[in-house]
Design brief:
Order of helices and strands: HHHHHHHHHH
Mean pLDDT: 95
CATH architecture: Orthogonal Bundle
Number of helices: 10
Radius of gyration: 15 Å
Helix content: 55-70%
Largest sheet: none
Shape: globular
Length: 188
């Protein structure tokens, strides 16, 4: 029996997440995770849809349950029949859960989550508000500015690349390329 589709995942995100910025964040992480899956790890077909779903839904329960996120979301995903690796990726996407990231999918969602937010923040302050103006140098420079995007844990940006065994500069470039695939939806 086939599990929930990407369309089902989008409907779930929209049902649980009313904030447009948080929906856009889901789209951003979905795009970066899918880029990694397809272009770095050779994932295709239905498996790539699974990767997309994990990226899209990683924060879907945050508005309803910010104090216990993502545990409530994981319970809902299990109830709806999502695969165990999607649930693991959702549970492991932040260090606060202490859930180990044992799969490449979980490591990829973790690596892309905060990096997407940071890259987008950097793009917003560029003269043309464009992803074309974001590279590793711009990201590294903004990482040193502790007042910029304060909520983004700098150590997680670095740790995500390390867990994927991808040089930091290359990781930034990969995330930017993934984000470009949804630049219209992101306004970048």
């Amino acid at each position: 029996m086939a599990g929930p589709t990407r369309e089902d995942a989008w409907a779930l995100l929209c049902e649980w997440t009313k904030s447009e910025p948080l929906r856009k964040h889901g789209l951003a992480v979905e795009a970066a995770v899918a880029w990694y899956g397809a272009n770095r790890f050779g994932v295709a077909g239905n498996e790539l849809d699974t990767w997309r779903t994990a990226g899209l839904l990683h924060d879907f329960d945050y508005e309803r349950y910010p104090e216990t996120h993502p545990q409530h979301g994981a319970e809902e995903l299990r109830r709806l029949g999502y695969r165990a690796d999607v649930v693991e990726a959702v549970l492991g996407h932040g260090d606060h859960t202490r859930v180990p990231r044992n799969s490449l999918l979980a490591k990829t969602v973790y690596a892309c989550d905060e990096m997407c937010g940071f890259v987008i923040a950097v793009a917003y302050v560029r003269p043309n508000r464009s992803l074309d103006e974001v590279d590793a140098r711009a990201v590294t420079k903004k990482m040193k500015d502790k007042g910029f995007a304060r909520q983004v844990p700098r150590d997680q940006l670095v740790k995500g690349a390390e867990e994927l065994d991808v040089p930091f500069e290359e990781h930034v470039a990969n995330v930017v390329e993934g984000l470009k695939t949804v630049r219209g939806a992101l306004g970048l």
